[in-house]
Specification:
By secondary structure, the protein is mostly helical. 78% of the residues lie in helices and 0% in strands. The protein is flat, with a radius of gyration of 14 Å.
């Protein structure tokens, strides 16, 4: 069971990485792959975005720190689960 959760977290991390790569290419943002990536990863990123939006200084930043926070949180969760089992 834990192995399944670890695999799902790895897949989500990969999809988030793919989303970041797609964001560098504006011509690909309207593709069905990009829509799929946003549909899958946005529920993970949105809580961090709403949390960071509470801080005025974070709203003015030119980069999306919510994406980075979500990625780090997934990695932390993966490591926590991995080391609790092994």
């Amino acid at each position: 069971m834990i192995q399944l959760v670890l695999t799902i977290i790895r897949i989500l991390e990969f999809l988030m990485f793919a989303r970041a790569i797609f964001s560098w290419f504006p011509q690909m943002q309207n593709s069905s792959i990009a829509e799929f990536l946003y549909m899958v990863t946005e529920p993970i990123i949105m809580p961090f975005r709403s949390l960071l939006d509470r801080f005025r200084g974070m709203r003015m930043m030119p980069i999306d720190l919510s994406f980075l926070c979500a990625f780090v949180a997934l990695e932390f969760l993966r490591m926590l689960l991995y080391y609790s089992v092994y």
